[in-house]
Amino acid sequence: MTIANEEVPQNNKNFGNTRDNWRKEMAASNTLRDKAIELTVLSNEFNYGYQWEWCGVPIIRHPDDIVLQQEIVWSLKPSHIIETGVARGGSLVLSHSLIGMTGIPGKVLGLDIKILPHTIENLKPWLEDKGIQIFECDSAKDIAKQHVSSFLHDNQRPVLVVLDSNHTESHVLNELNCIAPFLPEESVIIIADTIIEEMPEDYYPDRPWGIGNNPLTALNKFLQSNHNYKRDDRWSRRSLMGEFRDGIIYKLPT
Prior knowledge:
The chain is an alpha/beta fold. The protein folds into two domains: 1-46, no CATH class; 53-251, Vaccinia Virus protein VP39 (Rossmann fold). The protein has eight helices and eleven strands. It has helices at residues 12-28, 30-44, 63-76, 90-102, 117-128, 142-152, 169-179, 215-225, and strands spanning 2-3, 6-7, 52-54, 57-59, 80-84, 107-112, 132-136, 159-163, 188-191, 229-231, 248-251. It has a seven-stranded mixed sheet, with helices on both faces. Strand 8 (159-163), helix 7 (169-179) and strand 9 form a beta-alpha-beta unit. Helix 7 packs across helix 8. The protein is globular, with a radius of gyration of 18 Å. The N and C termini lie far apart (44 Å).
């Protein structure tokens, strides 16, 4: 088997090194990224991101990003995952099952300003065994700090956070400022929908976000004033049809 006229190494070490080069080349390809954005726009005509389920629960996530989160969880092995933006519940179930795959007893916290009855029904089996906890609150306000602090308690293991609620710059920046200080070293934060910055002009006419005002611009501002966090190049450009481009960061060890 060959890829781009290059023979795939059989040795594990050589394969890993070669694959790293493929990843870097793909991450740097503007041509490929332009095509991916074109495909994203076309697929959105069919609500591609809404077509999937995880363990029978609807999940609003592209398949590339689902696989990427699996890699992050397997590498990080967090005991706690925090998500803002609960939607229909599938992403919380994904996080819960991924923690379980690592063999580490873990918990998932979901925060959203409004959690609908059908979501509670979807999550019922996981809520009953306390594997998933959910709270209605504004994830960019002080109440979110209280929930996060109580949830993490005295945990010292790395934590995974997924921010996927209101996508305005101000809201995401406030979320980061609320949650990031509580996280242990080497924790990872995924900031969803940084892809908004790459979408066509006026692509979101009925939304308060768009080019210049979105999760990526919030993240860039956050990194300017929080030097204990850094963009994580292992993951930030791994998804082809992904919404997290340049939107994954980690907390540096001291």
